[in-house]
Amino acid sequence: MTSDPLAGSRLVVVGIDAGGAEVARLALGHGDDPPRLLAVHGWEVLRVRDVLTHPVERHVLTLTFVVEPVDPSKNQQGEAVPLTVGAPARRDDDPDLLEGEVALRRQRVAAYAVVTSPRGYLLTQFSDQTGAEGRWGLPGGGLEAGEAPERAVVREVWEESGQLIEVPELALVRTSRWVGRAPGGRLEDFHAVRVVYRAQCPEPTEPVVHDVGGTTAAAAWVLPADLGPVDLTSGFAEILGEVAGADGR
What we know:
By secondary structure, this protein is mainly β.
């Protein structure tokens, strides 16, 4: 009997062509990046179509992308197709690494939103419960068991800022990998899978953090012209730039 290559997978990546026909179905392993994973199988990602939760299925989440064939050795920019399915992991210098210590693998799926209103973009500041204390990012957080990403982002935005949002569009999916010490001291090999939405806040109010004592210290509306001095993490700065434009406008 042939074994199922998706058996035990938490995340599944699906590629569909322009006509909607499925052309690829792949397990997203620890550290894998969906576009790179599809690229090594001969498919270039054009856009993300949807991210669906399957709480009663054998896997947790299906990430579907619209794709087109690529040359086996070259992509459209003339660069070699990646030989690996994951981007290189960032590593922290750790002089206290114990002999034989092995990083604990942790994969986390979270939903975030680029929220706009007449008051600007909604940003959140990381607390001392994170490794980026004082820096800023986008509102959002991890999915609860069986929770759909679009529901998770509405809940997280309310908990972190007190804002009620409408989520009209899935924008992109991004992954990153980091090896280092978590705030609690544990050595982790952390794989972040970020599902990012475009969202609107029809009636913006003064932000207030409801989830006191969590990972969010503060929240604020920031006008596009005032983004320059804001200390965004590199990952969220890239996401905001891609979703909203290079200058955040």
